[in-house]
Structures are given as C-alpha cells and as structure tokens.
Amino acid sequence: MSYTSCLYHIVIRTKRSEPTITAAYEREVYAYIFTLIKSYDCIVYRINGMPDHIHILINLHPTRALSDLMRELKVSTSKMMKADRNKFPMFDGWEGEYYASTIGKERLEEVRQYIIGQKEHHKKINTHDELLALCKEHGIEVNEKYL
If you write DSSP's letter for every residue of 69-93 in order, what string do you get? Predict the structure, then answer.
C-alpha cells in the first residue's frame, strides 16, 4: 500500500470569465462536481465559488492524474450545464487552462476556510487579481494573455 497526501487547491473559470453560474443553481453544479470527483476515488474537502469561477479542494487519489480529472470534470460539467439552458442560459463552457497548486496538510483548514469565504473575499478582489495572487504565492509563472 502507498501512503500519499496529494492535496490540491484547484480553480476553474468559465469562458471569458463570464458570470454564468447563478446563485440559484450553483449548489447543483457543486454537487455534480462533488459526485464526479468522488467517482475518481478522491476526497473532496470543499467546493465553492462565484458566478465566473469555482474553487475545489481535494486529496487526489495516487492512481489518478490531475489532468485526466480536470479534463473529465470540465467536459462532464459542460455537458450537464449546456443541457439545461433554463438554469444556465449563458454558460458557454470552461476556459482551457486551470489553476492547481499542492498544499501541505498544515494549510488544509486555512485553504478550506478561504474557499468557504469566497463571496466575502470577492467583495475586495476580482477573479483576475485573485488568480494572479495565487500564482505568485506559489511561484507559478503566468502568461496574462490566458488569464
């Protein structure tokens, strides 16, 4: 048996960061994502977001590749949301790129609380600046053309 800790803080954005996930149906999207991630044998610690992006905190199962999970998550949720135009009339898909960084177990609760507080957090900072700050904090080079 392998003993691993693969904690990831992930952010996915809607195409062009359009605010297409309404408060009325965001929980439905989060529940769908939760179920999909669980089917990959991962532990989900928190999902929350804003109309233009979603934060996900997981422990990735050691037999799974992050890129495979993200591809399936985006394709599957896109199909689900596009199939219900009454709930998601403006949803046009996800941006091709995503943010993902590993975190240590000692930061798990801090990042979980950060994700819980998204609505309050975004009263002070927009999505673009938040992603820039996260990338800078984790030493990730950013091509602003894609942000």
Answer: HHHHHHHHHHHHHHH-TTT-TT---
Q: How far apart are CA 147 and CA 99, in angstroms?
A: 10
pLDDT, average across residues 22-26: 96
Tell me the C-alpha to C-alpha distance, in Å, between residue 121 and each of 113, 114, 115, 127.
Answer: 11, 8, 9, 10
Cα distances from 18 to residues 24, 44, 58, 113, 140, in angstroms, run 16, 25, 25, 25, 24
0.90 surpassed by pTM:
yes
pLDDT (tens digit, 9 = 90+) per residue, 8-17? 999 999 999 9
In this prediction, residue 138 carries a pLDDT of: 80
Q: For residue 7, report the phi and psi dihedrals to the nearest 5 degrees.
A: -80, 130
Distance of CA 49 to the CA centre of its chain: 8
- Give residue 14's pLDDT: 97
Say if residue 73 is exposed, middle or buried (CB neighbours under 10 Å; 0-12, 13-18, 19+). buried
